[in-house]
Design a protein that fits this description.
The complex is a heterodimer. Chain A is mainly alpha-helical. Chain A is built from six helices and no strands. In chain A, helix 1 runs antiparallel to helix 2 and helix 2 runs antiparallel to helix 3. The model of chain A has no long low-confidence stretch (mean pLDDT 87). Chain B starts with a helix and ends in a 13-residue tail after the last helix. In chain B, helix 2 packs antiparallel against helix 3. By secondary structure, chain B is mainly alpha-helical. The chains are: A mainly alpha, B mainly alpha.
Chain lengths: 167, 112
């Protein structure tokens, strides 16, 4: 068991634990902070898979921009942990059972699949995740989706302003 | 690392997100669980892209670009997620201004 495997299991355990803590935290600010830890763990996984560009973009976009936006909105709203309404215990139970059954289906499908036998994800090596190779493909094959993404951002910005303005 | 471990990990993360959407009533927490599900899918796409790359090396395929599409899909998912968060949070803020709560059970006016 070398360092890569130890890091893999550590990051996996950290991500799963923090994801559960996102659910069970009463205070929404604590949920946001746990979610940031999940994003850091997932970025660590990207670095293990040598997808360096995505690791940095994940940190900047998710852990930086999106989570700060969440924190701003929560602090605008003055939410208290005591006043948060709870679902009834039966609804919570049904939700956990439904999620558990879906997980059971996924995992049993993964274990029994013959196509996935002896397939491995390459760790630490391979240079397709470097920004040079990704940029070449992005600006040659995927240049039209890239331009459409800019239109999407423009429409999202206009939509956010129109929805958010006082009327 | 066997690909099954990555699939099991991403599925667990996705199901935690689903349980969060089903069991919480705070709209912001539900939104964060959706982000969690998006990230599980992103991680799985990157793992599959490295799987295809390893397969291309083993069988002598196109080593230069094998599996690179998966990582670009992750990039586009991040773009869409950023746009979605800005619009979604604007909707939540508007909802808070109208009903002074972020409880999703108050949003059942279309039902009757």
């Amino acid at each position: 068991m070398d360092t890569t495997h130890i890091l893999f299991w550590f990051l996996t355990a950290l991500a799963l634990l923090s994801a559960v803590m996102v659910l069970v935290s009463k205070n929404p600010v604590h949920s946001v902070l746990w979610l940031i830890i999940v994003f850091f763990a997932i970025s660590g996984h990207y670095i293990l898979l040598n997808a360096q560009f995505l690791a940095i973009v994940n940190l900047i976009v998710y852990a930086g921009a999106i989570m700060v936006l969440f924190l701003f909105v929560i602090m605008l709203m003055n939410l208290n942990a005591e006043t948060e309404p709870q679902k009834s215990i039966w609804l919570k139970f049904a939700g956990v059972i439904a999620g558990g059954l879906l997980l059971w289906y996924f995992v049993s499908f993964t274990i029994s699949s013959l196509d996935l036998k002896n397939k491995t994800a390459q760790l630490k090596e391979g240079d397709i995740g470097l920004i040079k190779n990704l940029g070449k493909v992005l600006f040659s094959e995927y240049v039209i989706p890239f331009e459409i993404a800019s239109v999407l951002f423009l429409s999202a910005m206009v939509g956010a302003v129109v929805i958010g303005k006082k009327d | 690392m066997p690909i099954q471990y990555y699939i099991a990990f991403a599925s667990t993360l996705f199901c935690i997100g689903i349980v969060g959407v089903l069991t919480r009533r705070n709209a912001i927490i539900i939104f964060m669980c959706i982000e969690l599900m998006l990230n599980a899918v992103n991680l799985l796409l990157v793992a599959f892209s490295k799987m295809h790359y390893a397969h291309a090396i083993a069988t002598g395929g196109d080593v230069a670009t094998a599996g690179i599409d998966g990582q670009l899909f992750v990039f586009f998912i991040m773009v869409v997620a950023a746009a979605e968060v800005s619009v979604g949070l604007a909707i939540i803020v508007m909802m808070y201004r109208n009903v002074h709560s972020v409880d999703v059970n108050f949003l059942n006016r279309l039902k009757n």
